[in-house]
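Interim report to the steering committee. The following record documents the input for Helix-turn-helix domain-containing protein (182 residues).
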Amino acid sequence: MTRPMLTQREAAAACGVSRSTIRRRREAGELPGSVEDPVRGWMIPVDALLAAGFRLNAPAPPDSDTSPAPEAGSGVVPGGGQDAAALRAELDRVRAEHALALAEAQFEQRLAAAEVGHLRAQLAERGERIADLQRAVAALTPAPARDVLAPGAEGMSVPEQGGSELARDESGGRRPWWGGRP
């Protein structure tokens, strides 16, 4: 049974890599069964290409890093082991960014909780201060006016307005309350 064989140029086009990549891999011994044909050049078995990690009919590699990434869920793994390492590095970078963002969010949450506690304490202090001020205002506000009893009402006499140390004698003059003469 004969295995299908491709030239270096055909293998490079079928795998989507350069001819120098195929040549380096062949010279490194990663493509066993390669034989040199005097007319066509080096012939590489398709089985050896697949065993080395190449994919047949793969798209050509991008010329620069500005090419779009493969669609998510397409099941396409970009070009073998080199891209897998790049994807792992990208995954590690994204995980680190996510862990950092999560830590920042948790810190901000703790900071906000502390600020809420501080504001509640200030609110309680200000509430106590307001209550103290309301008590002070109530103490300084004059009491409501009381009705003065008329003299002789219900057997009670109303003291005279004026000095309390003098009382009136029979002649209508004033005399000291202790009963002595003025």
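The longest helix spans residues 81-140. The committee is asked to note this result when reviewing the revised timeline.
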